[in-house]
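Quick illustration, no need to memorize.
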Amino acid sequence: MDDAQGNLLEHEDADVSEKPFLPPYNVPFRSTRLNIQRSNVCSRAYFVVVMVFFHVYILNVIALLLYVHYNNGPGDLVNGDGASSAPVINTDSGLPQPAPSGRELHVEDYSQSFSLHRMEGIRVGHVQHVSILPDRTHEMKTLSLKPLLFEIPGFLSEEECRVVVQLAQLKGLMDSKTATPSQEQAELNQPLLSLSTEEVFSLLDLNQDGFLQKQEIVSHSRSRDGTWLSPDNLRQILSGLEASPTEILTLGEFRRVYDVSQHPRQQRTGSLHSHFKQRNRHTWLFQGPGSHHVLQTLRKRVIALTRLSSALIELSEPLQVSRYEHGDFTNAHYDSSSFQSETTCAHTRLAGNTSALTEVSCRYLTVLFYLSSVEDGGESTFPVADNRTYDERALVQDGVDLTDTQQACGKGNLRMTPTAGTALLWYNHLSDGRGWMGELDEYSLHGDCPVKRGVKWVADSWVNVDPDHQQQARYQRLVAQRHKAKSSMDDHYQSLSHSDLHLDL
């Protein structure tokens, strides 16, 4: 029995030795299951964290897009750098709505980023399509790059041209004749008193310290006393003082400056301004609320074409309409002026520089409309358009002054024949490189050739901009404040009925 049990145990030991050792089934299963559960817990937490960060990122992106949308909407003047990213005007925006009714004006555009849109000419002859009407596209052709000049045929319909002409006739036209200054006209700009240089210096030297400071000259300009010193004298004296390194003038230095001021017509611009002549008849048409719908529509098209702030155009000069009959003309001139420290823009005089000696026209661009066709003559001429260089002395060639359209109209570099409905757009100023108005473009010199047969009707729309963007902002802010005050006052009186007025009385 013992031998049998021993054999059985040996047999079992042999079977066991032949089979590999296998641990109990439930032990590795439980261990593996626990590992799977731990892996699932880590994955779920990681997934939750990732989803939370993903949703936060999406919300931040949406918030950023909304911020950009509401801070760079259509109310901005233009994009940040002051230039369009494409030469073609946006054809999807349709017409803007400047002052659609009542007393509303877009005078609060001063809060926008100040920059001025400037179209690209690409090259002479380049044609780009622009949208100034919701259902029509116009072709705009580049006529020159110096100045930047465009032609837009069919800008106005024949009916619209006829309405503008009739409105001008109803308003009444006045003569605008400016001839070479006669002896009597020249004397008007001369001081009534004849004083020596020493006496003038003594009168200007308010503190009698033997030196002439800028403030002393400016103080005299405010008095508007022209009995012994003309405005031209003051401007020239002030220019000489600013050119001095010490910004003061001694009596000896004043003598040299004052002698030059006695002959202002011999300065650099003398040949251009001393011989300026024009002969036509003109009037001004208001385009604000309450004006004829054609005039308001015309202003909307100017806003759509120029892509400038509505406030700039609404606060600019009214539309000038001119009539040229047989022999009428305008010598070559600039629509705008060079900005100097002693001048201020006429349109911002409400917030103007009190120390300025004189007011000048500040016109960023000109949009000219031909309201009629001319049988012969009456061309618009740009004598020095696209010249390689500009030199005012070169305007006189072989004894002929190119600015004299009566004599040298055919010698101008560029001439456009008037065609009813066609518009011309050109920039009177260069860009300052920062999106604002820079120096006067000397190539924008232009005039009107004499009309030989027929009648020429034209309209000029000028966009006034102050070269000092802060001054322009102050002006628009001041207009906005006055407009709000006037609107509140009007609303107060309109809210009172006749019975209330009777009771108050």
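The two ends are 143 Å apart (CA to CA).
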